[in-house]
Amino acid sequence: xxxxxxxxxxxxxxxxxxxxxxxxxxxxxxxxxxxxxxxxxxxxxxxxxxxxxxxxxxxxxxxxxxxxxxxxxxxxxxxxxxxxxxxxxxxxxxxxxxxxxxxxxxxxx
Length: 109
Hints:
By secondary structure, this protein is mainly alpha-helical. It has a single domain (22-106), classed as Orthogonal Bundle (Recoverin, domain 1). The chain has helices spanning 9-18, 27-34, 41-51, 61-65, 67-71, 80-90, 100-108; strands at 58-59, 98-99. Strands 1-2 form a two-stranded antiparallel sheet. Helix 1 packs antiparallel against helix 2. The longest helix has 11 residues, at 41-51. The radius of gyration is 12 Å and the shape is globular. It comes from Pundamilia nyererei. InterPro entries: EF-hand-dom_pair, EF_Hand_1_Ca_BS, EF_hand_dom, Parvalbumin.
């Protein structure tokens, strides 16, 4: 399964283009622009599984830093500030990583 089987390639491109400059990534805006926030909980879970590169059941800091590159390989990495902000916004249980339920809540809220 690929991200483009769930999301439109054009929408992904627009979302990446919106946050090309360092420290401009806003997860809420990104999820909206790429169309993820309008998907079903099952589709959001499928996206999570693609982003969880090591299949640990969590998206850790190291995976999140390359979040944009999972959508488009030539995209930039997230800055440390963006990565920390992204984790803190979703990490409801303060374990330093994002689980599937936390990801779904973040995307669909």
